[in-house]
Amino acid sequence: MHQPRAFVIGAGVGGLTAAAALHRRGWAVTVAERAATLEPVGAGIALAPNAQRALDVIGLGDAVRSMAGRQDEGGLRTPSGRWLSRTSQTAAAERFGGPVVVLHRADLIGLLAARLPGGTVRTGTPAAVTDPGTAERPATVRTGHGGERGGEESGEEGREGEEHTADLVVAADGIHSATRRALFPGHPAPRYAGFTAWRFVVPPPGRPFTPHETWGRGSVWGTVPLPDGRVYAYATAVLPAGGRAPDDERAELLRRFGYWHHPVPDLLAAVEPAAILRNDVYGTAVALPAYHRGRVALLGDAAHAMTPNLGQGGCQAVEDAVVLAHHAAPDPGETVRALAAYTRDRLPRTMDVVRRSARVARLSTLSSPPACALRAAAVAVADRIGPRLVLRGLDGIADWRPPRTPYAAGTLESDTTGH
Questions:
Q1: What is the rounded distance in angstroms from the CA atom of residue 275 to the CA atom of residue 203?
Q2: Distance in angstroms (rounded) separating the CA atoms of residues 409 and 407
Q3: DSSP collapsed to 3 states, 130-189
Q4: Cα dihedral 162, 168, 171, 172 sign
């Protein structure tokens, strides 16, 4: 019997989850990653209960849950330190069936990569779809270019002009996806959301702190402990696209946030400028007509870029991956039909999350003093008279459960609904 073959472009969270889920269903999988190693240029990643349940499909949900932080309380603050809204991991678990777990991206990448056979991931290997294929014809991918070597995960050299055929191609190549442009030429690219983001990880400050997100005038700061004791900090500010600090990004953050409440000044004092990542934020403005064409499926940011305000970018990519594997039939002739089902399941849900995240982004980036004062008052009142505000924003998102799928290594015990 022919073993179906899948080719994954991109070894980020979504791409590796897809590879692991397809491998678990009996597919032969190759993953091509442009970067030289799997060490991610990232910082923290939040995995809400919906993503944890998706990771249960490949046997990693409990490993992630075991990394849940010990601090229970958290919430939304003003730059002076006044609390506007409070929440807790206990409340999240009661509402959604589990806490939100924040861990370093490197730890998640390591867990996912360990689910794949050795040699599956080829680093230092750019890849491009040259033929998306049809119901009767496999897809074709070209990899490699001269002089670039694969990383230690593959132990092989990048190859110039090597061609691969695949029954399924999974394009997890990010916000500026070349595959998306090739499949849907002329479709509007993700649009700049109007703000840029900084991220870094540092040792814990000397004094204790409570996890928080703080909203200022056109700016946001977040501080979250990681399982290993370090601290993940992130910040956003309304700025023109493509900007960079005139000196360094630590100096820029000090100018913008150095006077905010504890632990912000201590964290900025501890970070080296070179350790700060800065990236402009983009979101999908116009939904794609489909998340597939031929035998190629788009996944994660390549399909539905979203602002980080609900912490769902990585979570939705993980959902995509397990739903795609759920529909992927062992008969390669059924791939095109399976991808149509994938689009039907994922496009409406992910675009709803894109829109909801964009609404929070617009609220968090208000900059006029009257608007910010009104926002703070409204948040505080809403938190007093109703369910906890931060958690309400995840209703219909964090309570998602994956479809029931038979796997080669066993049967997933989960709900039958995929929405």
A1: 12
A2: 5
A3: EECCCCCCCEEEEECCCCCECCCCCCCECCCCEEEEECEEEECCCCCCHHHHHHCCCCCC
A4: negative
Number of H helices, E strands in the chain: 13, 20
Q: Map out the domains of the chain with their CATH numbers.
A: 5-72+102-189+285-362+392-411 (3.50.50.60)
In the structure encoding, which two tokens stand for residue 255, read together? 């100018």
How many CB atoms within 10 Å of residue 164?
17
DSSP secondary structure, 344-367, as one string: HHHHHHHHHHHHHHHHHHHHHT--
Residue 302 CA to residue 180 CA, distance in Å, equals 6
CA atoms within 13 A on the CB side of 156: 15
Please provide the DSSP assignment of 3-18 as one string. Answer: PPEEEEE--SHHHHHH
State yes or no: cis peptide before 203, omega within 30 of 0.
no
Tens place of pLDDT per residue across the chain (419 aa): 689 999 999 999 999 999 999 999 999 999 999 999 887 666 899 999 999 999 999 999 999 999 887 667 888 999 999 999 888 788 778 888 888 999 999 999 999 999 999 999 999 999 999 999 999 999 999 998 633 333 334 444 444 579 999 999 999 999 999 999 999 999 999 999 999 999 999 999 989 999 999 999 999 999 999 998 999 999 999 999 999 999 999 999 999 999 999 999 999 999 999 999 999 999 999 999 999 999 999 999 999 999 999 999 999 999 999 999 999 987 878 999 999 999 999 999 999 999 999 999 999 999 999 999 999 999 888 777 765 666 777 889 999 999 976 544 433 434 433 44
Angle made by CA atoms 418, 60, 318, in degrees to the nearest 5: 45
CA atoms of 102 and 97, how far apart (whole Å): 16
Inter-CA distances, 417 with 50, 305, 402, Å: 13, 24, 7
Say how far apart CA 401 and CA 393 lie, in whole Å. Answer: 17
